[in-house]
Amino acid sequence: MQANSPFGTAPLFERVVAEYHGERHARGLRCLDSFVAMLFCQLGQAQSLREIHEGLKVSEGKLVHLGMTKSPGHSTLSCANLHRHWQIYQELFTALVPHLRVKLPVSAKTPLALPVGLLSLDSTMIHLRAAVFDWAKYKTTKGAVRIHLLLDHDGLLPRYAVITEGKKPLPTLSLCPRALRLCLIVDIATPIGWPS
What we know:
This protein is α+β, with helices and mostly antiparallel strands. The protein folds into two domains: 6-103, no CATH class; 107-186, no CATH class. It is built from six helices and four strands, in the order ααααααββββ. Strands 3-2-1-4 form a four-stranded mixed β-sheet, with no helix packed on it.
């Protein structure tokens, strides 16, 4: 991996990949390539593996700067997503949060002068095919999951995330300990089971 990897964290990424044996049975797609493809998917709002493949193929000359030699095929991405350990990316995110918090400019912190911490709770639905994800019940022919995200405005990074089935609301607001003095902003459409 090159020193100019995403966020300049080559040693961290390599350590996490080695810990989970992420490169075993890689078949041409390294963990770094998969990570770059999934970042492109999120930032480019790609809706399919083919969109990721085509979008990266257009930018192949620039991928060299991220350590990639070519755009991975959509079937290669599918195989990697199916067999690669998701814990690699979870641990990478957990390790990057403090690293990124330090690098944020002071102006990115909360502009409001509040005596308590400020958090936002929001929810979004991700639609899935019921035939493939039979555990994600939503409608007769459709599946869905709901991601509930607690955003900490001091650093603009997520503090907590919960994934539930599409029909289920966030269980309770017990994820915010009552001992903490916080100001919580909630979207009116966010399905929440309020504590009794």
